[in-house]
Amino acid sequence: MDYAEALDYLERHINYPTWGQKSARAGRTEGLSLERMERLVAVLGDPQGACPVIHITGTNGKGSTARMITRLLMASGLRVGTYTSPHLERYNERIRLDDEDLDDERFAESIAAIARVEALLDEVPSHFETLTAAGFVCFADEAVDVAVVEVGLLGRYDATNVADGTVAVVTNVGRDHTDFSGDWRWRIAEEKAGIVKPSSHLVLGETSAELRAAFVAEEPEAIWDRGVEFDCTSNALAVGGRLVGLRTPHHALDELFVPLHGAHQGLNASLALAAVEAFFGRALTDEVVTEAFAALTMPGRFEVLRREPLVILDGAHNPDGAEATGSVLDESFAVDGRRTLVVGMLTERDPVAMLDGLRFRSFDRIICCAPDSPRALPAAELAQVVASEGRVAEVVSSVAAACERALDGADPDGLVLVSGSLYTAGEARPVLRAAPGH
User: Strand (E) positions, 67-145?
Assistant: First the structure.
């Protein structure tokens, strides 16, 4: 199987938004099960058990925390496999070895391993299950020392949960994958708590005392709570990122430079350091931590792509993520020229909350588009939401065309922000990078 054949094989499998079309909401678990995924990995020889796993869930910050954990483990001398989702531009981004995307040949080999056993199964795996199993196969074949695995959606019934995390990391519990009915925060917490196993050391970033009970109920071997055992003790704006202080039961570190934008990245850094020190059971040296963060990049997460005009790409995909993006803009990115917002999002999001989080009223120009997804909110419908909130938006069907229009009308001393979904960010990134002046 070559790379093109691997992609074709993937596309022939049902691409649910990781759980399935039956449910993408916390608390609606009827008919959901890990049995199909368990049968798949069993036929493959249970590759998810070939190495220790650091398993990460949460509403926001999973991808950044996973990348930070990976870099800390690498700086400690370990060979690391990292599985994340979704990708920005290519599927290869989801399965990484020592923070490098799989090359096309190795990616195809991993997918081929799933194709070879499919006939032995009584039910065809989904698109996400296939990718997840391929990641576990790759990590087993490559004999990585540890796998860093990001949950696709919630946790308990996510395909990644066939693995038992030595360390289970929860970033937070926020507004995503919910219909906001009843005690929706508790239901989300219960589903995320499903990745916590009796053998897990839980590193809990969610600070609600009420929600903590959902995670304690899973009876992990140990718990470290943000604000108790670990924390971000200082978090200041710096040129090109943040200057933070971090504390764990093993370690206190002052003035660590994190080359990412936003105060939330300081919180993610505290989670990552706590997770890795929980994994090792000891402190990391200051030199290891500094080396790990110096090499850190996060494509698509408040990524500055050019300066004249200032072009920023951010994959905020829920109201809390959009609020974080808006806060970074308020704090760090004032401009003299016109401000343009290119926004495209998915249907299951609250568009008004998303727009408010992105500070859409502060923009001089708003361009609505739709990412190439069956779950995309049509650009015209999004523009109607903008109009209902008292502003006028342009409608451009595709993300690429919206980015080109935004750049064509941008002031050299202005700002273009592209946001609303990781799918929007993924389609925009190659267009913005290829634009003249990048």
Answer: 80-83, 95-97, 100-101
Structural domains counted in the chain? 2
Q: How many CB atoms lie within 10 A of CB 237?
A: 13
Inter-axis angle of helices 104-117 and 35-43, to 10 degrees? 100
Indicate the residue among 259, 294, 329 that finishes a domain: 294
Query: Six-digit token pair at 14?
Result: 């049902």
Residue 109 and residue 138: Cα distance in Å, rounded?
Answer: 8
DSSP letters spanning 223-284? EEEBTTTBEEEEEEEETTEEEEEEEETTEEEEEEEE-SSSHHHHHHHHHHHHHHHHHHTSPP
Q: What is the largest CA-CA distance in the chain?
A: 62
Burial of 298 (0-12, 13-18, 19+ CB in 10 A): middle
Residues recorded for the chain: 438
Q: Is the pTM of this model over 0.90?
A: yes
- Domain span including residue 352: 303-434
295: exposed, middle or buried (Cβ count in 10 Å: 0-12, 13-18, 19+): exposed
Same-domain status, 33 and 131: yes
Together in a domain, 233 and 352: no
Given a cut of 80, whether residue 16 has pLDDT beyond it is no
* CATH code of 404's domain: 3.90.190.20
| pLDDT tens-digit series, residues 162-217 | 999 999 999 999 876 555 556 889 999 999 999 999 999 999 999 999 999 999 99
| CA nearest neighbour of 262 among 329, 354, 169, 176 | 329
Q: Is the dihedral of CA 272, 274, 278, 281 positive or negative?
A: positive
Share of the chain above pLDDT 70, in %: 94
Residues 233 and 326 occupy one common structural domain: no
Rounded distance, CA 169 to CA 69, Å?
10
Q: So what's the pLDDT on residue 19?
A: 38
Tell me the backbone φ, ψ of residue 244, rounded to 5 degrees: -125, 155
| 116-154: pLDDT as tens digits | 999 999 999 999 999 999 999 999 999 999 999 999 988
- Of the candidates 294, 312, 340, which is a domain's last residue? 294
Distance CA 108, CA 87 (A): 16
Residue 410 and residue 267 in one domain: no
Query: Sign of the C-alpha dihedral, residues 149, 152, 156, 161?
Result: negative
Q: Is 102 exposed, middle or buried (0-12, 13-18, 19+ CB in 10 A)?
A: buried
